[in-house]
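Bug report

Summary: structure tokens for SnoaL-like domain-containing protein differ between web form and batch submission.
Environment: batch mode, default settings.
Steps: 1) Submit the sequence below via batch. 2) Compare with the web form result.

Sequence submitted:
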Amino acid sequence: MIIFPFGFYVLEGKLPVYLGNDLEAQRAMQAWLEANPDCVQLRLDVIGPEQLLTRFLGFDVRGRSAAMDHGPLLFETTCCEKEKITVRRLYHDYDAALRGHAELIEISRKRLH
């Protein structure tokens, strides 16, 4: 059996729900992500040339290095310009991800002026 660090999750409201850490859990997470795009994408904003996207990932992209941390980073905010990621932040929870998104909006707006 293949074991993945921290495993795979779906969202129930704002709370990540653990599915497991095997291939079956990975497939279930992927199916949930595809069936629930409105739950996956938390925010999308365009500020000048920058696009800010905050989303639920369903797994910790850090892989094995995450094992020493306090928990999985399941949410991501990216700031892209011309399809290149210029800023990437990872978060443990839904509300922190939204706060981070709002912070990046303010930073992007200040750069415009």
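Above is the batch result. After comparison, the two runs are identical; trailing whitespace caused the diff. Strands lie at 8-12, 15-20, 41-47, 50-56, 75-81, 84-91. The radius of gyration is 15 Å.
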